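The instructor's notes for this session suggest beginning with a concrete chain rather than abstract definitions. Hand out the sequence below and ask the class to guess, before any prediction is shown, which regions might be ordered.
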Amino acid sequence: MSTTITGDRSLWTYEADSTGVLRRQIQTYHGEERRTGPHGTYAGPGRSYEDDLADSASDSAFSDVTECRFPVARAWLPEDVVGCLRTTSFAHPALFADQHQELEAEALGLLRRHAYRGVLKEEAEFTVLLARRPGGAA
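After discussion, reveal the predicted structure:
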């Protein structure tokens, strides 16, 4: 048996000038902590996916873990980033109630100022974890 976990960084954690100003702008509404919905904040994972997969006390015991990293270059329009924000736990429209349109207008202005020729570049890394049970059993 095997499993795969994939992911890249979120708009909250990706380090770029545009995401930094965007994060700070969102924080002016809700404070420093990352929101996870209307009633909570996100403190980060207690441990890595690798540790979870390899935990011998768990039922899965995927201790044979291989990590692969792939560079990803993406180009975003500021409007696309604002659209993506709507799907996140930290900038979902419900978190801002009647201030949501104001937040989006401010975010769009910030992103447009950081865009080069109308485009925001993202140089990210996509991580893929391939995990198998010991002994190579499929």
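Then share the key points. The mean pLDDT is 78. The CA atoms of residues 22 and 107 lie 6 Å apart.
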